[in-house]
Amino acid sequence: MCPENPLSRREFLGRAAKAGATLLTAGAIAYATHAPDPPEPASDALAASGLPDFSIPEAGKRMCIARGVDRTRTLQLALQALGGIETFIRKGDRVLIKVNAAFASPPLLSATTHPELVSELTRLCLNAGAAAVQVTDNPINDPASCFALTGIGQAARGAGAEVILPEERYFRPLTLKDARLIQNWPVLLRPVAGATKLIGLAPVKDHHRSGASMVMKNWYGLLGGRRNIFHQDIQTVIAELARMVKPTLVVLDGTMTMMTNGPTGGSLSDLKETRTLIVATDQVAADAFGATLLDKTAADLPFIAKAEALGAGTADYRALSPIEVSA
Amino acid sequence: MSDVCSSTAHPPRGPRSRRQTAIGLIVLAGLAAITVAVYSIQFRFNPAVLNFLQGAAVATRTSASVEPLLDLPEGVSPMSPAERFDRETLSDKINGKAELYLSAGFIRLDCQRIALAGRPDAWIEVFVYDMGSVPNAYAVFSRQRRSDGTPLDFAEFAYRAENALFFTHGAFYLELIASGRDERLLAFMEAVARSFMARRPVASAAIAERDLFPKEGLREASISLIPADAFGAAGLDRVFTAIYAADGGEMTAFLSRRASAQEAADLARFYVDFLKTYGGEVSLADEPVRDTAVIAILDMYEVVFSQGAFLGGVHDAPSREKALALAGRLAEKLKEVPRVP
Predict the structure, then answer these.
(1) Cβ of B113 under 8 Å from any chain A Cβ?
(2) How far is it, in rounded angstroms, from Cα B177 to Cα B123?
(3) Under a CB-based contact definition with an 8 Å cutoff, are residues A54 and A198 in contact?
(4) Using the beta-carbon criterion (under 8 Å), do B9 and A169 form an inter-chain contact?
(5) Which of B51, B55, B80 sits opposite A145 (nearest CB)?
(6) Cβ–Cβ contact B12 with A under 8 A
(7) Looking at B97-233, which runs of residues are DSSP E strands?
(8) What secondary structure does DSSP assign to A293-327, as a single string?
(9) Quick check: A267 and B146 CB within 8 A?
(10) How close A268 gets to chain B, by Cα (Å)?
(11) Maximal CA-CA distance, chain A
């Protein structure tokens, strides 16, 4: 047999020593420079500072309570009473409508935003000169089915809006300053980042965990990840969401109110015709009034007081001298 | 032999050495390029990784059921694949109502949408909750029962609403929810329900506690089982309640069968203490059993006692007299149950 490597013992030891020294040096450099903590999220301005403020200070804190069963009409009347949609939407605005499309259930059950409102609100925004209207939500289970079976997708597209279904790449981790729960949490930021106006559009519902689901709870659909862990402290997370989101306008649909077995409902027996639609610039006030449609008071729903304490609005909706109109 | 070896094992060192050096330099340059790339890319951290660490922002599709959920009758077809949810993922489907099921022992949910042939707008969604036991299934059934539902006779606990059908079958709780009030859909839902029951035969198991509530004044459809945190008291679990008419209003009788008389007595003390912490004023009565606690709280009255292995009482009564009268009748019924140590 011929030796395959003619290295001498001296050469072998020398090379082994050099290789060992190289490994040690590389290891030492890696150890000295490694960061034990995970890197900070992307240096996205939104992620660092929360969502943009979409409110219009000059519009003031205003609220209208419209009575009637025709959602299209009550929405029109309420907006007219507040000075018209032009008070809130200007030419060239890119409007994002955050609906509640949480479940793949038919409009009949009132578990989701009613498609008539999506359609009419989109139409009004576009008529006011909005450059684009987008409609979004992050229903955890099968978003495409949720938007299809609720009728929201068809209503939005039919009126000229674009439906944004959630995708992984649309989320960015967000930390709400001084928040206890919303810390480095994935939020559906991309549609929000492209908007100049934000409107929340939600139904009034009983909610097994929080007591009620209205406009503030509706922002829950901007969260990604395993957000169900927030159910352990749902009152706080709703209040933090209200602080995180400063909408241009909120529309709370109490035309049919889900009085029991919310938030999914399932039976028409769970519903009560309450014939009321609220449009407001103060989301806390809107929810405080919405509580009355559930035969509750604002004091029965701790997230309202918490949101007020965080500066998201006022629970005393009467202080806004709400305008009342009837269809 | 040595000539051969020397010609193959000892090549001239000069030229080979230069080639090795060149190759070595190329490899080192490649490694340096990789190092630079890694160094620069690490500052552009992909947030998707953080999302992954915290759970995906958008949920992945749920797993399909292992077996077909239903035997579909003629004239209908699946509208969506069968889906399965477990304790971890239930809230992905029913959001905030998940806690109601989880606290009652939920194991898994299978669901599927099916549509009438040629009528994509006419569909039902079938929810089959495996609750693990007959009482657990009864708990979620009774807690959500619609007061205006029409009772159905094909299952012991079943009713129909305008657009839906709800019933228990052994350890299963089922909801069949239609997209509208269509009569054909409603008839079809009942056929699906019967088919499900035929496919999964279960031994009948009665809810014995239902018969322990005195009949006079009882609103039969109101008997329900609270699996946990009854009346807001964390730790007060497995409590049956029943509503009784009282002077134009209502009051609630309650009972809970425990493992032993001692456990029942301890639970009674626990609940009385709970009421005291919320301002309840406690007095004792000798009826219906010795040391029965009567608690005045928020202009209402509660009665709490233990009898054998049962915790019993009355909740939200309009007066002390009515509370004690109903408690007395409840105690009489509980005496009919053979005592345990």
Answers:
(1) yes
(2) 8
(3) yes
(4) no
(5) B80
(6) no
(7) 108-116, 119-130, 150-151, 158-160, 164-169, 172-178, 224-226
(8) HTT--GGG-HHHHHHHHTTS--S-GGGG--EEEE-
(9) yes
(10) 6
(11) 105
Inter-chain touch B56–A141, beta carbons under 8 Å:
no
pTM: 0.80
**Along the 341 residues of chain B, how does pLDDT read in single tens digits?**
444 444 455 555 555 678 888 888 999 999 999 988 888 776 654 444 444 444 555 554 455 554 567 777 778 888 888 999 999 999 989 988 999 999 999 999 999 999 988 888 899 999 999 999 999 999 999 999 998 899 999 998 999 999 999 999 999 999 999 999 888 888 889 989 998 999 889 887 789 999 999 999 999 889 999 999 999 999 999 999 999 998 788 999 999 999 999 999 999 999 999 999 999 999 999 988 888 999 999 899 999 999 999 999 999 999 999 999 999 999 999 998 876 55
Among A4, A208, A218, the residue to mutate for chain B (most B Cβ within 10 A): A208
Radius of gyration for the alpha carbons in chain A, expressed in angstroms and rounded: 26
Write the DSSP assignment of A34-70 as a string of letters: --SSPPPPP--HHHHH-S-B---GGG-S-EEEEE-S-
Residues B97, A208: C-beta atoms closer than 8 Å = yes
Among B10, B50, B180, beta carbon nearest to A41: B50
Contact A224 B57 (CB under 8 A): yes
Among residues B223, B267, B228, B262, which one has the least CA distance to residue B244? Answer: B223
User: What ipTM was reported for this prediction?
Assistant: 0.78
Q: Quote the CA–CA distance of B108 and B62 in Å, as a whole number.
A: 12
d(CA A71, CA A57): 27
Contacts of B3 (CB under 8 A, 6+ apart): none
- H-type alpha helices, B78-211: 90-94, 98-102, 134-144, 183-199
Chain-chain contact of A171 with B59 (C-beta, under 8 angstroms): no
Q: Which of B58, B144, B163 sits opposite A138 (nearest CB)?
A: B58
Q: Which of A149, A167, A228 is nearest residue B91 as measured by Cβ atoms?
A: A228
